[in-house]
């Protein structure tokens, strides 16, 4: 008889004077803190000021929260956005931030880095190359938070490492319907950690002489190919995806893959250029 992993973990770590401290919030904050340490290290090694790293972190934080919330509404709840736009704008500034779309965050980050590169007079792809390792590391934290929340669960499976998600909010308290599922959050978490290590290894070889765009293109290509494939193992997040050949996450990954290939081509053609 197969033995699966019973996952009873509560999304809440503890309650502090009536205010719940949750795993997802902790992981979200940890993603930025760890990312800042990595970014500061890279800037210091390349002889850049920590003030620049501080400013870039601020751009990234605002873009991530706003972009992820906007992406969720535009890609997954567009009818609700049209019917209740006030709720949309209120949700931009009021926690809890329930419903975050990584594709929306990605689009907002690309725009934020453009503004930052113009202000600092730095090549755009130089900036994104220094950020993508922190994004990979942050992605690992976020997906671990999803695991602790028992959300974005995988499809039913009989693999020996399958999880029994007893706190899956979509089930309510009906434990009789709990079935072994792919821990898709864990797959993505570990993939992001490996990708982070590879990106830091690439950067460490040449540092500021790394061809502009190579790390960005490599990161986006690997990340979104994996995202496209992992979606086959996940349950759909919203009902309208049930009738689609590919779900929303997969459709949004296709242009990202094409864009990544274009960036890599550019990087190879300009491989002798850096800052």
TrEMBL record:
Family: Belongs to the Lgt family.
Transmembrane segments: 23-44, 56-76, 96-116, 123-142, 185-203, 212-230, 250-268
Cited Pfam families: LGT
InterPro entries: Lgt (IPR001640)
Assigned keywords, A-Z: Cell membrane, Membrane, Transferase, Transmembrane, Transmembrane helix
Function: Catalyzes the transfer of the diacylglyceryl group from phosphatidylglycerol to the sulfhydryl group of the N-terminal cysteine of a prolipoprotein, the first step in the formation of mature lipoproteins.
Protein name: Phosphatidylglycerol--prolipoprotein diacylglyceryl transferase
Organism superkingdom: Bacteria
Main location: membrane
Enzyme Commission designation: 2.5.1.145
Topology with respect to the bilayer: Multi-pass membrane protein
């Amino acid at each position: 008889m197969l033995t699966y992993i019973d996952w009873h973990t509560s999304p809440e770590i503890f309650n502090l004077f009536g205010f719940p401290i949750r795993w997802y919030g902790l992981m979200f904050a940890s993603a930025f803190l760890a990312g800042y340490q990595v970014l500061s290290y890279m800037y210091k090694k390349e002889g850049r000021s920590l003030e620049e790293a501080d400013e870039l972190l601020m751009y990234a934080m605002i873009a991530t929260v706003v972009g992820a919330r906007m992406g969720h509404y535009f890609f997954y709840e567009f009818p609700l956005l049209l019917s209740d736009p006030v709720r949309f704008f209120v949700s931009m500034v009021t926690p809890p931030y329930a419903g975050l779309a990584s594709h929306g965050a990605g689009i907002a980050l690309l725009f934020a880095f453009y503004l930052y590169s113009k202000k600092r007079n730095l090549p755009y792809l130089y900036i994104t190359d220094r950020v993508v390792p922190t994004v990979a590391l942050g992605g690992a934290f976020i997906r671990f938070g999803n695991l602790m929340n028992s959300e974005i669960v995988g499809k039913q499976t009989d693999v020996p490492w399958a999880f029994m998600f007893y706190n899956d909010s979509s089930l309510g308290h009906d434990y009789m319907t709990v079935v072994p599922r792919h821990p898709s959050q864990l797959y993505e978490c570990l993939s992001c950690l490996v990708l982070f290590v590879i990106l830091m290894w690439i950067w460490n070889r040449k540092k500021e002489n790394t061809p502009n765009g190579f790390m960005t293109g490599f990161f986006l290509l690997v990340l979104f190919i994996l995202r496209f494939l992992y979606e086959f193992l996940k349950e759909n997040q919203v009902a309208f995806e049930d009738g689609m050949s590919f779900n929303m996450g997969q459709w949004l990954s296709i242009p990202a893959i094409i864009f990544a290939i274009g960036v890599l081509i550019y990087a190879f053609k300009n491989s002798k250029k850096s800052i």
